[in-house]
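hey so i finally got around to running the thing on that chain from the lab meeting. sorry it took forever, my laptop kept dying and i had to restart like 3 times. anyway pasting the input first so we r on the same page abt which one it is
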Amino acid sequence: MELKVAPAVAKWHRALEALVALAEALGTPDSIPTALAEAEAALREARVAREGLQGAREAAVAPAVARGTLGDEDEQRLRQIGAKAEEEAAALEREERWARRCQRWLRAGHGLTMGLMVLCGTVLSLDSARTALGVTEDGQLLLALTVVAVSCEVAWRGLGTSRRHLATAAGHQRDMAQRLHDRARQVAAARASAEAAAATNEVTAGVLGQLEEVMEALETLVAAVTRDREVMLCGTRGQGFHRVAEALREIIEGSARWRGGHKEVTRRLEVAYRALVGQG
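ok and heres what got predicted. didnt touch it at all, straight out
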């Protein structure tokens, strides 16, 4: 937008200079055509600059609209929720690691039990061993080892299922946290863009207002000079510029309300006005 503001400021200054030059040229009729042509050229350039500023202001509406679509979202709140989701994901991942460790112990226990079953089966198949141990061939030891082995296998499979569920849940929490953080960044970026656009738009509006004020004054004076020259009946210096005198008076009165103040411009316009009225 600054690329539009700087040229507009230059055209505004040129329009001011053309306004004063045309008013001062009224005292020397021979210089009026040149000053009038310069004023008309300054007006054309000012109109182009005004269109550029208006387009820039319309373009600045986009960040504000984007900010409006965010509703009441607060990036800090989004980040807090995202951090909470990350904590929950970390807790789920810790549980998954604990389940993995338990699986390893269960697998080791299952292997040990199976080894004991083979060993005990071999030993208990010997009559002397059974007699020494005081157990029968269908003793409860192998049955107990079988129960332990089956229990380890079931627990191992159950923990495998739990691990998959935990990993899935942790992944969902990680994805949610990432989306929340991304959204928080979008909200922050949109807010910063909207605030920057609002600040720049305020500057643009000020320049546009100043440009339009000077343009209005210059258009009024150009129209008055053109009309008085058309109806002027004689070439006596100053005679016949009745509309110009009235236009200058109105411009001087309005210049007191111009944005930014232009005391030197007003002073020169007053001098030109008094000279013109004195000649009339």
